[in-house]
Amino acid sequence: MLAPALLLWPLVRVFLFSLQEYGLRQIVSGESNYIGFDNYAEIFSEPMLWQIVLPNTIGFAIVAVGGTVVFGTLVALLLASLNRMWRAIVSSCIMVAWAMPAVTGTYVWIWLFDANTGLVNTLLLGAGILDEPHNWFTDRWSFYAIVVLNIIHHGFPFVAVTVLAGLLGVSKEMIEAATVDGAGAIRRFFQIIFPTLKPVFAVVVILSTIWDFKVFAQIYLMPGGSGSNRSVLNLGVWSYVESFAQNRYGFGSAIAVLLTVMLLVVSVVYVRTLFKEEK
Amino acid sequence: MRKFRTSLAIAAVTALGLTACGSGGSGDDGGNGGSGGNGKSGEGETLSVWIMEGTNPNADAFFKKAGQKFKEKTGAKLDVQFVQWGEAHDRFVTSIAGGTTPDVAETGTTWTAEFAQAGALAPLDEQVKAAGIKEDLVDGLVEAGTVDGSLYGMPWYAGVRSVIYRTDVFKELNLDEPQSWDELLKTAQTIKQEKPDLIPWAVPGGSQYAAYPFIWGTGGKLATQQDGKWVSGLTSPEARQGIEFYTDLALEHGLSSAAATTWDATDVLDNFAKGKLPMAILGSWAAPTLIEKNPDLEGKLGAFPIPGPDGGYSPSFLGGSHLSVFNSADNPELAWEFVKMLTTTDLAAQWAEETNYFPGTESLLEKSINSDDPMVKPFATQMVEAGTTVPVTPKFGAVQGKKTIPAMLQSILAGDKTVKQATSDAAAEIEEILNSK
Known about the structure:
The complex is a heterodimer. In chain A, 74% of the residues lie in helices and 0% in strands.
């Protein structure tokens, strides 16, 4: 009884806040100030949401989840083919990428792409590809390309380790039998390994989707990412700038509720497709 | 704030010494404490105080001393907590929500009105009046701390940005401190020609305070109140002319760098410390940090007030901190006693000296004004002659939160919008926020 209440009460509170015009004054006085669904109406009537924020959030999540899962799986396959010692060495190396705090990782990428002293610009200038230093952070596409690199780099170890655990459980006999029957590596992966590992992939994809939908620090900390470059706003940063930076907690809660609903829908769809096929 | 009222200042200081703290509670030494009898009202109590971290490198020693003095005077213990600027706003809000606010806190001048309007702060008018120091407080800080005619923030210290420059570069190239925008441009162009490794005048897209002088210099306004409604002046020809001049330093004259488009104030400081910038709009408090980051800069720093378009000065943002008493304070008299001690005694002068900021009272400020220190005088001139504040409304914090001005600058610098388009968009956003209920 207690556990669901502890989990659900904050959610209920957030929902109740989202129906209010809730600012600093309400926090001080403790009064409620219900305005119905005005906050939601305001969110949906905001052109910024449709033109910038949603395309950025969803587009980024698709690319980042795809990239993380594919790269992570490739690394897992590599790990599975290594002997015990090398597997230990390589997996400890990739753990370092995972263990790096998001903030630190983000600053490394910012530093690499810095327009004055960054390695990338220095190399491109040296090779004659660029004539003058280029600021990679002002353009929407190059900005998100850097964020995708950052997220994949930070997220692939989790996928690799999880998928590796699954790979080690795939029965050796089946793979050997398939090899004898003349199936190549790609065919073996898609016909034997992937179907066996479907639950593992479902978990990995759902978790990555949730993480990548609500990515905040990796964008907020990038030059221009904290709200001054409007073309790179995603749902997380937009809600922060629109609500918390302006003490509009009701509005912020409404965005949080929307994000939760979106993620719930995504998760439910994943889980249902998974169980349907198992029947 | 233009004129210093020496006589009033003296009167105020005298009054301070004589006042017996009419609002009750304890008083100065020798005062006949209203309630305490022996003048020590805070025996056995503890006053909790939040102070921003990083303003004063000697903060620990300073507050140890302040704590001793406070104990001597009131018998109460002082409990000082240091809070990072970056997280302070959130901490204030959560502590207000959770009822865990300190008794006294340092509040940035742009926050005081916001917290006051929300009902979290206690008005200080009576205490200030009783102490007879009303006339001595620096006007710009009083204005920023006043909501609906009541003072909620006691001026503590103030700071203003001017131009810090490299005297060694100027000497080598035989350059003088520019007196007008035209001279500023020519100076930067000379540096570009002679010292191609330097970024002659960085135009940081993320720094609002570096841009304001160019909006205000031509007489442009961020927003003014007309018939109870806020109207942004960013679309005026004056403001557009100033913004155009400022952004053209980068776009037309190539005096900035591609990286600067996304720089904020910290990046400017870092790059100046690395020796890449010969000039930059920085606060007086930046000088010690620059030398700490790069000791080679010692003796190579100078400063001049930001020039006006045709001579004179361009106004610069007068910022700083208040000391505010929270409504939740158990013993408001004790809280005020601490505020008064920190803002009017020699502790105020010591704080200003250690931080390279200016004190919040005119009588103390006068000493800085008359200082011959080349790193103090230009800032003092800027503050007295051309220090101004952003629109005084609790809502302006929301404009800053939304980064309206940086967004405007970056879109111009990145070539996404023209000056006309960008200023129109920014003006619409400012008006929408300031006029929302």
